[in-house]
Amino acid sequence: MGGDSCPSLLRALLDHIPALAYAKDEEHRWVYFNAFFLSTFGLPAEALLGAVDLEILPPDIAAWVRSQDVSVLSSGRPLSSETEVVWNGAPCNISSSKSCWTDPVSGKRYVLGFIKDITWRKRTEREQVMTMAIAENGPAVLIRCLATPGLPIDYASANTRRFGYDPRQLIEQNTRFESLIHEEDLPRVVRESGRNIGEGNDHFVLEYRLRTWDGEPRWVEDHVFIERDGQGAPQYRQGFILDVTRQHDALQDREASETRYRTLAQNFPDGSVVMFDDELRFTLAEGKALMRDGPEHMEGNTLWDVFSPETAEYLATRYRAALRGRKSLFEMPYGDRLFEVRVVPVRNVDGVITGGMAVSHDITRRKEAETALAELNANLEKLVTNRTRTLARQAQDLEEANRQLKKLDELKSSFLSSVSHELRTPLTSIFGFTKLINKDMENGLRALVQESRDQKAVKRFDRILDNLGIIEQEGARLTRLINDVLDLTRIESGRMEWRDARISIADCIYEAVLAVSGQFVEKESLRLEADVPKDLPEIFADPDRIVQVIVNLLGNAAKFTSQGVVRIRARRVDDDIAVFVTDTGAGIQPSELGRIFDKFHQTQLGDTICQASPGSGLGLSICKDIVERYKGRIWVRSAAGSGSVFTFTLPIAPQKEATAM
Question: What is the pTM of this model?
Fold first, then answer.
């Protein structure tokens, strides 16, 4: 295809290249064109041979070609480039590859050039870039997977971050796409995908829940495209995934709302619920109020298909107002009945009005009752006036009775105080003489009785000592009862002396533990444990009264616990000090818990009063009064046979003010 100036070796080299191939000499004259070049330009070889660039090519292309030729000849190195030019009035992209070739026979140098039209490739690349940009930034997330078990992710678009995932990590960690599908939906997704692929469907849509990175399920619509290999086997699974959670929830809410409306209306004995669209056509109807032939004849029909023209026009005005966003409430006669009708707009999840709802209620009986009630009210006003006068007189009588009760309460308190003081004097004498008699009998008479060797006398002597012990024990119990009564009387009458000060709860617990230690020594199978930090904040209270509370709780625990452990703990809880007394004893019946802190109440086991050590029934009531006096609380948790936990709290004392400098 070239002239004689082109060596035959060079022509043989370029003849069969599938590109625009040519050769130039050092003077930039064209000496060879292959057949592909000539067919492209549609010119004979004679018209091109010996010509220079400006004689063949457009000026802009000729200048670009000449600059490359000069560079190749001067450097001797190959050169490749791409550019966009206008050819035949249309833009196109071309690539050029040039090199310098020296004829081994003549030693002449030539520029060998190869030109390709890459316009289609460039257009394809731009379209791919645009497609990927849409995929990366559009509403759909693109995920491509290998069509192998588990669906390993091969590509994930950048907007996969909408579900909280890093697309690069999904690929690098060889994440299985099936692991992202909600476990309840996965079997269905696998089953439907397998069925579609098996039937040769290369495009189908699935709806399921996709788990986000933080585990939240999101409903998605997955448009699946299957890419197959040359043998027709699935090679890739590409999914364009749209988040449809909002639409799915809205549909669920709509269906749930419609179900609720129907359920409500079906059980609405004197009314109905209807829904209508913007054409005033009923879309839902349940109930019988304002219906001519029942709800089955309403759905799908308009107002004018159901009601008389007058009634339809009357309702249409209110229905259209609802479609404009206005609510209405009115009474409407229908036949021989009277109805109360409420009409409201119905909006979708975006707040757009899509229709309306009317709730009707038969108020005929209510109106009749209101009329009867008005008549009754007129009569009642007279009765109330007369009754008010009577109640006023009774109120005066009650006020006088209340004054008398207060006087009696004061007399009761005074009497109890006086009697208690009077009882303590003889009790002191009884205690003293009982101990003296006991001592004399032990020291003076026991030896004589034992020397007499009279067994009857010895038994009688022991029985007398036992009786003296009973007298001493009952006297002590009577003393405790009197002391409790005195304490309760002083607290109720306000005559109790309170020596309040900043004190340590740990010191109070230590003193109380020493006071009750004798009760635990007597029971070898019962031990007392204390867990009280020394650095607990101070409280503001009377130390003797706080010790009294703790002694009472520990004493009760020892009383009703035959074996095991009684444990006292103290802890800071927010702005309070909490004291816990726990035992492994008999526990308290559920029916007793509500009355355990009542005055004179004694705990029962079964249907009998516990005989472990009967008391006055005032101890816990006094504890409650003392604790509540300091703005604290006391309570118990227990179950029969499982022990008890008595707890009381006291506020922490305010911090001391800093000493002025």
Answer: 0.35
